[in-house]
Amino acid sequence: MRKLMMILASLTITATTATTVVACNNGTKENKVNVKDKYQVIPTVKNIKAAIQKDGVNPDDVDIDIQPGMKSAIIRYMPNTPNLPFLTKKIALDWATTDINQMLKILSVPYSKDDLGENVKPETALAIINILNGTQFTLDQVDVVVDNDSHIITLTPKAGSGLTGNAVTIDGQPITFNDIFQETNLGTIYIDKDLYDEYMSNPSSKILFMAAAIMEFGGDRNRFPAYYKSTMANAMISAIRSAKVNIDPNTKKGTFSMETKVDGVIAQSGFTFNFTVDTNPRTYLTENNTKPTSDQAIDVNLPGTYTEQNLDQLRYDLAKQLLGENFANKYKDIFYDEIWVLTFDANTKKAVLTPKPGSKIFEISDKTASSLTGIPYYTLNVTFGG
């Protein structure tokens, strides 16, 4: 059972920081979306979503990728959104305040030795703080001091960063699932048709399998658990027998809910994910959309030359060669989030890439969860420049 729970806990990802070329806003009067080029807001995901909602955007339909330093952000639509006004749009951010205390609202990074180790690095602490608060501070902007005895973290604005205010103290107290899973409306998620049919015919025998499939998408939109896999495994162990999956067979709209606690990390609380199931196969990132075998490593040769600075071009060229120019052009603006570059070496001219679990456009599953979801995990071993 614990092995299965560890699989569920692994269904989370870390945020990417690569930049991308973004499309222009081509919203129409029909969908009444009129996103501005610049917003004056406190630079957090929550505040940006509130601002663009006033301009016609349904906040459940988009993810917000604030760029490091928080001077700009990318609005990234779910690609299956009806009447899609645009796929991505980059907006400038004019800070409504420079006070760091007004930007940070969740002032706890719960300490877990199993997850974070004996000594928490400043960059790890800052990454978790950014995820919880929907910010994107950098180490060039703030001094981060971690006291690994008291588990107190202190953030102090650096001179010349544009930030003001007193130092912020972050404690190590437990947080709730409301803090962890801030995005609970997952939109349309892909479930393997065989798994879906088996679950609908006998729900009690397949709830663990459905939980694994749903958590891939929950982990994509909420990236805090990537740093707390052991904690999430313990949470699933204690709650799986009372966890509930409900799906309407007519509309395929469903919910997944659970409630539990993990001492020292997660206070007694619960969450409910809302979603709509899609069983129509998505596209494999393989030549001509050929289904790969489980854990297959696929060799690909690309003629282009790439550096750490143009990895988006590598992503685009890979998709173009495997799936054609039309597909690559349609989704190129979200490849930075949809395709992971696992390793890259400009000297040997080799890279390993894979679509992310919970992808909006590709069919793939997490390596450890593949046996539960019925969807293969695979990688692309790319040799380039020759």
- Supply the helix-strand structural class: alpha+beta
Q: Into which percentage range does the β-strand content fall?
A: 25-35%
H/E series, N to C?
HEHEEEHHHEEEHEHHHEEEEHHHEEHE
- Tell me the span between the first and last alpha carbons: 47 Å
Report the average pLDDT across residues. 92
> Outline, from the CA principal axes?
globular
Global Rg: 21 Å
Give the fraction of residues assigned to helices. Answer: 25-40%
Largest sheet: 4 strands, mixed
pLDDT below 50 for ≥5 consecutive residues: which ranges?
11-30
Separate helix tally:
13
**DSSP strand tally:** 15
Strands of the biggest beta sheet: in what spatial order?
Answer: 1-4-3-2
How would you explain this protein's 3D organization?
The model is unreliable at 11-30 (pLDDT under 50). Helix 1 (2-9) packs parallel to helix 8, helix 1 (2-9) packs across helix 9 (229-239) and helix 7 packs across helix 8 (203-221). The relative contact order is 0.14. The strands form four sheets. The protein has a four-stranded mixed sheet, covered by helices on one side. It has a four-stranded mixed sheet with strand order 8-11-10-9. A four-stranded mixed sheet has the order 12-15-14-13. It contains 13 helices and 15 strands. The chain has helices at 2-9, 45-53, 100-103, 113-116, 122-133, 177-180, 193-201, 203-221, 229-239, 311-323, 325-331, 335-338, 370-373; strands spanning 38-41, 62-66, 72-77, 88-95, 142-147, 152-157, 168-170, 185-190, 244-247, 253-262, 266-278, 296-302, 339-345, 350-355, 378-384. It has 386 residues and is of the alpha+beta class. Strand 2 (62-66) and strand 3 (72-77) form a beta hairpin.
